[in-house]
Amino acid sequence: MKGLDFSYEQPYWNKQKNLIVGIDEVGRGPLAGPVVVGAVIISPKMTIIPGVRDSKKVPKSKHSEISKLIKENCVSWAIGVGSVEQINSFGIVGAIRFAIHQALEEIKVFDQVLMDGSPFKEPLNISEEIDFITKGDSKVYSIAAASIIAKDHRDNLMREIGLEFPQFGWENNSGYGTKVHTEAILEHGVNKHHRDLFVRKFV
Question: How many helices (H) does the chain have, and how many strands (E)?
Fold first, then answer.
């Protein structure tokens, strides 16, 4: 399975920015469950792990295996979680911002941030330099690695909370608005894991 290399990170390493943290979030669009941010630090001394690319292009059966390899071989990694309560109170962007800060506080030491997507309207208030890269999870190794550990973590969370509410099929749909999920909402209503604004058209 073809993956990414360090070509995007190399120019930063050439400037002595040796500790690059890639950041990506997963779970922006589901009807239920938290949003999760992954952060992975890589350095020039690391070995490329085959198969690291945008988590959406990695077979689901491979997520846990590759996530484990990333965690074992990277300099450092962290997960940040924006809860459903935070999503309901501060919106999805507010919850993502919280999760980013949570992950970076755990990482602590880094020289450069590479993040998937576009800049936030309000600065993230991070002292280190940060570059936003459109479709970064398909171009940048460190961001792709972050997307994989975040996806694996969130899928595991959704399987776990899905045991309490098996009618919604969260072990398979991860809280997204599949036919099984939306029909279950219409039949059973919503619960504490649903995002208020995301499910209002169903209730």
Answer: 7, 5
Say what the pTM is: 0.95
Q: CA-CA distance, 79 to 100, in Å (whole number)?
A: 8
Nearest to 137 by CA among 124, 122, 147, 150: 147
Terminal C-alpha separation, the chain: 43
Alpha helix ranges (H) inside the chain: 10-14, 63-73, 84-107, 141-162, 170-173, 179-188, 196-199
Which tokens is 61 given?
């059966």
8 Å CB contact between 37 and 24: yes
Q: For residue 102, what are the contacts with CB-CB under 8 A and spacing of at least 6?
A: 37, 78, 80, 81
DSSP category for residue 143: H
pLDDT tens digits along 11-65: 999 999 999 999 999 999 999 999 999 999 999 989 999 999 989 889 999 999 9
d(CA 54, CA 140): 9
- The domains located in the chain, with CATH, are 10-155 (3.30.420.10)
Taking each helix axis from N to C terminus, what angle separates 63-73 and 141-162, rounded to the nearest 10 degrees?
Answer: 130
Tens digits of residue pLDDT in 70-79: 999 999 999 9
